[in-house]
Design brief:
Acyl-CoA_Oxase/DH_mid-dom_sf; Butyryl-CoA Dehydrogenase, subunit A, domain 3; 8-stranded mixed β-sheet; 362 residues; 2 domains; two-stranded antiparallel sheet; flavoprotein; Acyl-CoA dehydrogenase; alpha+beta; acyl-CoA dehydrogenase activity; FAD
Length: 362
């Protein structure tokens, strides 16, 4: 499957040849169409090219060659560090006097190499099949894992997953997005050359926030596509199914429900495209802003999928129709790439920070 995707030319060079406004529209259209087809597969395709995108952004020819033609994954969470990866403001967002959560995947870094121990979480997209990883890891550069504020030092690196000391768990068995092969990866004294790093101590959080922002924008396009697929399936079914002596679509309440679904699809698309334009074109971006769009889009997608399943009635709960799959895929998205309640709380934190700087004060 990945070989067929590669033939489409969906790599970082595709969008760079266009004006930024055209590139945003194309990226949005492609992401939505992929999500319309299968959200899990769309997320997998996005994650597969993530290491190559970062290598290209870094301008590192060795890493570009290392990633080209390979299935990639994105390692950022681990069993002890999930939503805590979003903590940037230790003063407002962490208990006073306590160091941050360094998690269960750690590295020591010197001038020559990065030595990695621990495991990433079972939720790593493509973790079960990836050949190369873009990894964000707590790091000790010789003076401990924490800075003066208690925040974790980190290193971001591209890691070939055939190095000695790397092993994997079994693929994750889950509620939805089953076309997305997620799974754990274990590291036992894995040695990576320092030249494979894309962000060291001082650049780590800026690089990490850029990566998370990219993931959020991709999720928004994909789940706009899922919402559209659920709407279209329901619309067709309402023109085929008869109850009360007439087609479902001829009932006034059904028309209202269909209209409300269409409104939500358009809302999701507008938010998804605006967040993508912001992330790609603004000189000053923020991962909480693109994550906020992910919250809006995935929650609207779930509402559309849920309403579509209701319109199918009992048939919607069977596997005879694909609407039950869309519902499961959408439900998983509310936790994927940041649980929606946690993200929304962090958006509130951003508002608090901006207010302290004078925003919205008369």
């Amino acid at each position: 499957m990945f070989q067929e995707v590669a033939k489409l030319g969906l790599d970082p060079q595709l969008f760079s040849q266009f004006d930024s406004h055209v590139a945003v529209r194309l990226e949005s259209l492609i992401g939505e169409e992929l999500g319309w087809g299968d959200a899990g597969l769309a997320v997998s395709i996005g994650a597969a090219g993530f290491p190559l995108q970062m290598a290209s952004a870094a301008g590192n020819r060795e890493l570009i060659d290392l990633c080209a033609g390979k299935i990639g994954c994105w390692i950022i969470t681990n069993p002890e560090k999930g939503s805590d990866i979003m903590v940037y403001d230790m003063k407002r967002d962490w208990p006073s006097g306590r160091s941050a959560n360094k998690g269960s995947l750690c590295a020591t870094v010197d001038r020559h190499e990065i030595v990695i121990n621990g495991q990433c979480s079972a939720w790593v997209s493509n973790g079960a099949v990836a050949q190369v990883a873009l990894a964000y890891i707590a790091a000790d550069y010789g003076d401990g894992f924490f800075d003066a504020e208690g925040r974790t030092h980190g290193v971001a690196a591209i890691i070939p997953l055939d190095l000695p000391g790397i092993s994997r768990g079994k693929p994750l068995d889950k509620i939805g997005q089953r076309a997305l092969p997620q799974g754990e990866i274990y590291f036992d004294n894995v040695r990576v050359p320092i030249r494979f790093a894309v962000a060291l101590q001082d650049e780590y959080y800026g690089n990490q926030s850029s990566a998370w922002s990219y993931a959020g924008t991709h999720m928004s396009q994909v789940f706009t596509g899922l919402a559209r697929a659920a709407f279209e399936m329901a619309l067709q079914y309402c023109h085929e199914r008869k109850q009360g002596g007439q087609l479902l679509i001829d009932h006034q309440l059904t028309r209202y429900r269909v209209g409300d679904m269409l409104r939500r699809v358009e809302l999701a698309r507008s938010v998804a495209r605006r967040s993508l334009a912001y992330a790609r074109q603004s000189p000053f971006t923020h991962p909480y802003a693109t994550a906020s769009a992910k919250v809006t889009v995935t929650e609207e997608a779930l509402k559309v999928a849920s309403e579509a399943l209701e319109l199918f009635g009992g048939a919607g709960t069977s596997r005879e129709y694909p609407i039950e799959k869309l519902f499961r895929d959408a439900r998983a998205a509310l936790i994927e790439d940041g649980e929606n309640y946690i993200i929304t709380a962090r958006v509130g934190l951003l508002a608090q920070q901006l207010y302290a700087e004078g925003w919205a004060q008369s």
